[in-house]
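BUG: 3D viewer hangs when loading the predicted structure for this chain

Environment: internal workstation, default settings.
Expected: structure renders.
Actual: progress bar stalls at 90%.

Input used:
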Amino acid sequence: MNVLTHTTENKETGCLEWLHSVNSAGYGQLHLDGQHYLAHRLSFQQNVGEIPDGQLVRHLCHNKICVNPAHLAIGNHTDNYADSAEKHRNANAAKAQKVEILGVVYLGMRAAQKATGLSLSSLVKYTKDGIFDVQGYRNGCVLARRSAKI
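Structure tokens produced before the viewer hung:
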């Protein structure tokens, strides 16, 4: 079974998003021949190569259900933490920008969060040039099996 045949492509990000079971941490998972796998790790093994002992497979796109081999990289916990810290630095800078959601302009991500109930991570992920991508957000919710707030 090739992991890539069980995905849908997110045209906006290029992520190949896992369509089946996700674990409690939000990562794609599957059972194959009696073994439990994380979908992104199996995708890396099938399409790139073995994962060295003590290493992990990082999501360069920060999308836990992405199994696109081009978005995955080998690294250690320090690398993964640095990726996460950089993402959060960028997210903090983005919180100060104006964001338009369904025709309403909010003065900052926090104001939009309070008014709409959307998470800051959703606001950061789906806002480009100050416009919140409502359809992209709703599609992401469907793929993650969560209900959309708007």
